[in-house]
């Protein structure tokens, strides 16, 4: 199937590249002809030259035309290969995401695995999902980020048990955090134990990040994460953005957070929220 797809992409994409290369060739020919005309001597100049002059009767454009044809052919092959590789990567990414959705629907349709409820072609989906593609997922994650950073952030949720995807998403989020600052789920890839311990410079983006749930905000005051002033300020800002009735359910967690709050942020938050609600 992959071989036939590649042949199809080469056949369909070849015409576009030929049109582009022909246009570039015509422009080059026009430029060269205009340059030749400007450099050609006039009739008056020829009259001034002496009679005994050797004239080169071999056209100069023959070798240049052959070289230009070879270079155009090599450019066409190079562009065609890039075109095919790019679309095959996108095809594999789409098929992998589609296979995950089909698996979810199959489980919903036949949760008990009964034989009479099996769908034709179900085995082919399982075979596709069973293929080991860990070494390729780094490139596919970068491709998903180029298409949409939000798509790349949610790849680990769809494609579980893939450490390669998680590491690559963490690297991309730390490298370019602004495109996903409105996605609260992306914060887990920016703020990790290593980034807090090493006081990573990209932690400053956490202060303006989209808010997370109260229980996740309280996790920054627990033993799950090292204590850091930026994470504490962000957690207090998130907790303060919720109504007092919503935070009321997390009073036990707030009391436990006081034990590990060496900077006093939780105590100040409890005082502030007590003024809003009794």
From TrEMBL:
Gene3D superfamilies found in the cross-reference section: Phosphatidylinositol 3-kinase, accessory domain (PIK)
Any GO molecular function: 1-phosphatidylinositol 4-kinase activity
GO cellular component terms, A-Z: cytoplasm; plasma membrane
SMART domains (alphabetical): PI3Ka
InterPro entries in alphabetical order: ARM-type_fold, PI3/4_kinase, PI3K_accessory_dom, PI3K_accessory_sf
Start and end residues of each PIK helical domain: 137-278
Gene Ontology annotations of biological process type: phosphatidylinositol phosphate biosynthetic process; phosphatidylinositol-mediated signaling
Transmembrane spans: none
EC assignment: 2.7.1.67
PROSITE patterns per record: PIK_HELICAL
Family: Belongs to the PI3/PI4-kinase family. Type III PI4K subfamily.
Descriptive protein name: 1-phosphatidylinositol 4-kinase
Species of the source: Bracon brevicornis
């Amino acid at each position: 199937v992959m071989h036939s797809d590649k042949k199809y992409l080469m056949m369909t994409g070849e015409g576009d590249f030929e049109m582009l290369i022909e246009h570039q060739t015509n422009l080059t020919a026009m430029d060269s002809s205009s340059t030749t005309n400007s450099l050609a001597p006039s009739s008056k100049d020829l009259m001034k030259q002496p009679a005994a002059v050797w004239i080169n009767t071999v056209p100069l454009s023959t070798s240049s035309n052959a070289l230009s044809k070879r270079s155009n052919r090599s450019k066409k092959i190079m562009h065609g290969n890039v075109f095919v590789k790019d679309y095959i990567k996108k095809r594999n990414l789409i098929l992998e995401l589609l296979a995950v959705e089909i698996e979810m629907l199959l489980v919903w349709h036949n949760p008990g695995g009964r034989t009479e409820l099996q769908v034709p072609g179900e085995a082919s989906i399982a075979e596709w999902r069973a293929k080991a593609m860990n070494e390729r997922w780094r490139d596919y994650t970068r491709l998903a980020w180029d298409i949409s950073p939000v798509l790349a952030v949610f790849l680990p949720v769809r494609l579980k048990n893939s450490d390669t995807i998680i590491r690559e998403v963490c690297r991309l989020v730390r490298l370019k955090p602004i495109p996903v600052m409105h996605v609260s789920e992306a914060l887990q890839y920016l703020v990790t134990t290593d980034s807090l311990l090493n006081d990573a410079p990209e932690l400053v983006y956490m202060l303006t990040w989209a808010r997370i749930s109260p229980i996740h905000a309280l996790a920054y005051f627990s033993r799950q994460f090292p204590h850091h002033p930026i994470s504490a300020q962000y957690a207090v800002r998130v907790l303060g953005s919720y109504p007092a009735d919503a935070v009321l359910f997390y009073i036990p967690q707030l009391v436990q957070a006081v034990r590990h709050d060496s900077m006093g942020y939780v105590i100040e938050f409890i005082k502030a929220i007590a003024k809003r609600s009794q």
